[in-house]
User: Fold this.
Amino acid sequence: MALPKLFRSSNKRKGQPAPDAAQKLRLALPDMFQQAAPASSSADLPRFSASAADQPNRRDDRFGAARMKLRNAYTPSQPVFDRRMFAGRLNVLKAAIRSIEDQRLHLVIYGERGIGKTSLLHMLASAAREARYIVVYSSCGAASNFDETFRAVASDIPLLFHSDYAPTTAEAETGSSLASLLPTRKVLPRQFGDLCTKLTGTRVLIILDEFDRAESLEFRRDLAELIKILSDRSVRVQLVIAGVAADLAELVEHIPSVRRNILAIPVPLMPAEEIGELVTNGERTSGITVTPSARDHIVAISAGSPYIASLLCHHAALDAIDDQRLDVLPSDVASALEQALGELGTRISKNTMAQVHRLVNDTGTDLLSLIASASLSGGGEFDAAAVEAKAGGATKAARCKSIVAELAAQQILLQERDDGFGKRYAFIEDAVPSYLWFLAQQQTFREEDVAPQRVRAR
Ligand SMILES: Nc1ncnc2c1ncn2[C@@H]1O[C@H](COP(=O)(O)OP(=O)(O)O)[C@@H](O)[C@H]1O
Ligand SMILES: [Mg+2]
Assistant:
């Protein structure tokens, strides 16, 4: 049996001159650390295009260099940290800063997954740090509780801002934090609130992201109590709570008593110009150009979602580079869409996929995409009557009604409520509306006769 390549000696070939020192060193290194050309049998296997030290494999490789720059240009799997990559959202950011600064309110920032909450929070945090706020960012998880979260927050606030500890005291000089003053047993909102009243010479912004993930009711109640304590005593500490929700009550239903101390800021879908800005920012960073028609497709398909825009740009630009080009064409966007569809498909159950494709075969994508886009723009929910009204004529409206009924019967749609104004529905699997929307968008490429790049290249 052949040994794995790593253990095989590579200097066993006979009749070759003795290796020099440099060669000896190279030979002593296992193959996996060498940049030699791969053996012919593995030449067709995909390879990493750059070293882990972020160097392209060849210095003159402009496509390798573009590929590396692209990693910072469109980051669909990460929020934006770099101001230069942050598009739009000026009004939301302005409203957040004003209410923190001028009204001393606590904020709740809510919206769909992927709408850009965390990216926005990073920009807010950096603006606050610029104004010398102490900013503590914490991302919640299912098991988050008050004690653990606020102990960690306290450990980021230096003791020298506590009025009882002048900067010259030994404790403050050793770099201690407020956490050193917390009791060893479970921290209660009142104790943390009391500590906050003692803060001077700074202001603190505590950002709790992904708050919807926290499952503990006690945590939510404790947080409500803390907001009440902080608001009653005009303390120099403000909270920013962010999470996935269709409305404020869904995210902070346990905080009704402190509503007047909170400003709720929904993060809406991005207008087309802001999606365009996102594309342009990435072009500037990567040196790759997106042609106007490719850009139009990206703006149309993303329908206001920065996540989808970023995902499409990322895949499309990689496809262009694979094809040895530095300009993104509509065919690259078509192939990016195909990949996005494939990825989304893995997040949908087999049964739902089968039903969805059967319906698409029976009725086409027009009405299904109308339903999907109503759901995507309505924070996950949609009003069946409003969608029927948009269907375009009585026959289509009736067809739309029967599709909704069928999807509900298949348990793909769930009837949320009938509040007297109409029936509201939501997709049970949250990838389904995006999937339907993408399928319909694929149709527009077919109509324009644009074949995906990777299909053409084969
Ligand atoms: N204002 C923005 N400018 C550029 N890209 C953005 C912006 N907002 C979000 N994105 C991109 O969208 C994706 C989702 O953003 P994120 O902030 O993680 O959303 P959320 O926290 O709401 O789930 C990320 O890939 C991010 O890079
Ligand atoms: Mg987030």
Remarks:
- The pocket of magnesium ion (ligand 2) is lined by residues 79, 117-118, 209-210 (CB under 6 Å).
- Confidence is low (pLDDT under 50) at residues 1-16, 24-37.
- The chain has three domains: 89-266, 272-345, 350-430.
- Residues 89-266 form a domain with the Rossmann fold fold (CATH 3.40.50.300).
